[in-house]
Write a structure and sequence with these properties.
With 179 residues, this protein is mainly beta. It has two helices and twelve strands; from the N terminus they run ββββββββαβαβββ. A hairpin with a 6-residue loop joins β2 and β3.
């Protein structure tokens, strides 16, 4: 098998619990030189520790530091529902090594997905959210004009994913609706 790499089909890469019964796994061997694919199958009789993939939150963000051209890492970010029924207790996160926030931490039991599910039942499911980035702590005292960057935006609770990139410098920033 040298010269080949194996890739499980995406739906087999995650499973809600360990596999405890025999399972037939179908996968491709891919040749790095020719990119040819060979279909393989194997029966797995032993329990296999496949873990669940994280649930994709309806709102995510990331930060790009324009002074370095690299991700803005370890930036504290809060997400607050302003309307309707707001302001809510903020959900919090810290940007990862790739500058992203993909999961939010909330007070006892509150999750972003649950908020979306509850609001989608209302006739006017439009929400206003606020993302706050602690840019003062990131750049340091007297090293930025913006101690905090707040981005407010509309969200339709009836579905969709909202990704908010922040392109950040010490003296300016820009944002947009990403994909």
């Amino acid at each position: 098998m040298t010269g080949h790499s194996s890739k499980l089909a995406p739906h087999l890469e995650s499973c809600p619990s360990p596999v405890t019964t025999p399972v037939k796994v179908i996968y491709y061997l891919v040749s790095p030189k020719t990119q040819s694919r060979e279909l393989k199958a194997v029966i797995m009789n032993e329990p296999t520790p496949l873990t669940a993939a994280p649930i994709r939150e309806p709102i995510t963000c990331h930060v790009l530091d324009l002074t370095t051209g690299r991700p803005g890492t370890s930036i504290a970010v809060s997400l607050t529902l302003l309307r309707p029924f707001g302001p809510s207790a903020p959900l919090t996160a810290v940007t990862s090594s790739d500058g992203r926030v993909n999961q939010w931490n909330g007070e006892a039991g509150s999750s972003l997905s649950e908020i979306f599910a509850n609001l989608s039942e209302h006739d006017d499911g439009q929400m206003v959210w606020s993302l706050k980035f602690d840019t003062g702590a990131y750049f340091g005292k007297n090293q930025t004009f913006f101690p905090e960057v707040e981005v407010r935006f509309f969200v339709d609770a009836k579905g969709g994913h909202y990704h908010v990139p922040l392109l950040l410098g010490p003296w300016s920033y820009t944002t947009y609706r990403g994909s």
